[in-house]
Input
Amino acid sequence: ETGVTQSPTHLIKTRGQQVTLRCSSQSGHNTVSWYQQALGQGPQFIFQYYREEENGRGNFPPRFSGLQFPNYSSELNVNALELDDSALYLCASSTEDEQFFGPGTRLTVL
Amino acid sequence: GENVEQHPSTLSVQEGDSAVIKCTYSDSASNYFPWYKQELGKRPQLIIDIRSNVGEKKDQRIAVTLNKTAKHFSLHITETQPEDSAVYFCAASIGGNYGQNFVFGPGTRLSVLP
Output
């Protein structure tokens, strides 16, 4: 198993609410990426943080935002939740090329 | 932007046979291609990767080949075992100022029949 941890494991929210997901990166990894994995699909890149700054963003609207802290842990915030936001949210930490995923947070939006 | 296609979407093989999964990518700037294995309810796990300056890489029963000219890369699993059953994802790097980000293929569900 990797040293990447995520919380919470599961979360249920209703449409229109806001959610914050958390990730602790593997020791020595200063880059954190977030992915959304819908059921039956591959992960889709949301954004990446390096040294507390956003370093690339995928095709996701501004209501998806993030933070990285000095200890390299990270948060993903999603505002105005929609039903289609239901998915597994994966955090991955990396150095250079290799990325290692956390266990994910399963978000269900009702 | 980068687009990654992956075939087949499902693959069933008999235990001991070989399995091959193929991916194509569109962006010639991509230079790193990892493969992930995801078992049901678990995180994707990196199983092998290849960089664009290498044509082939092998790790025990798993090998990956890359054809930069044709923009395709393949995963080869030999002597398959039931524990190889999982969904496999290929990915292509899309760069970044401080490390790579990836576009993933849609996945291949591999079933190894005993």
